[in-house]
Structures are given as structure tokens and as C-alpha cells.
What does this fold into?
Amino acid sequence: MSRSGALDRIDALLSEITDPPFVGVIRAEPLALAGTPVVCFWVNGRIDNHQTLGDIGSTTTIMVRAYWRLQSSRAVQEAIELDIWDAAVNIDSKLRSDANLDGNVTDSSVGASSVQIEQVGDAFYRSLTVPFEMHIYGEITITP
It folds into this structure.
């Protein structure tokens, strides 16, 4: 199991999504965006759990977020709504298609998605957020 391998696998899975056609996958929380739609992901938190006498497991939350630049055209706004729904389904489907991320985690789960308007840099975007939890059993060895 490898933390870097898990991140590489998430990157590969998100890169396979063709609907909507993301212009890129960014492995970081963005400070600015050059083009949209784009999907980003980053580590959002980690907690120890699953403790036994010999080891401790963990759950790490990855924030997956897709962005669309706000547009004034009604037709474009309506197309973005369909893109957001497609992205919600396809991100969920891709992440669930490899629950152990090519053997780099014990298991994973996809949380409930949400949509909001947010500012990145000087621009405003519609964003879709999908929390993704990775579970690694026995990640830390306890030495008596």
C-alpha cells in the first residue's frame, strides 16, 4: 500500500472521465483556474481509527471538486447544469470502480455530493464537491 500510489490512481481514474470533457485534472486545491470545466482533488483531512493491539488504521478524506466558470448566457447555464449532474454520476462511478485504488488502500467510500458557487482567484465558479474517503487498515504499527 502506498499513499502516493493512491493519489496516482485517483488522478488516473478522474482522467478517464469523458462526460463532461474536463480540460484537466489538478492534484491540488486551486488558487486560480485557466480553463473549465476542470476537476481538482486534494487531501482534506485524516483521522486514526480501527485500533487493534498491534496497529491503527486510518481514514483519509480527499476532496474532489469540479469547477465551471459562471456564464450569463441562459443556454450555457442550462448546459452547465447537465454537466454538473453528469460529473456527479461519473466521478462517483469512476471512484467506485476501483474501491481499493489498485491495492493502495484497504477500501474507500464516496460521500454525498454538493453544488455551490465559489470564488477562486478573481473569478466565480459553479462547483461540484464530492468527498472521497480512503480507509487503510494497519497503517501505523503499535510497538509495546
Summary: Residues 74-96 form the longest helix (23 residues). The radius of gyration is 17 Å.
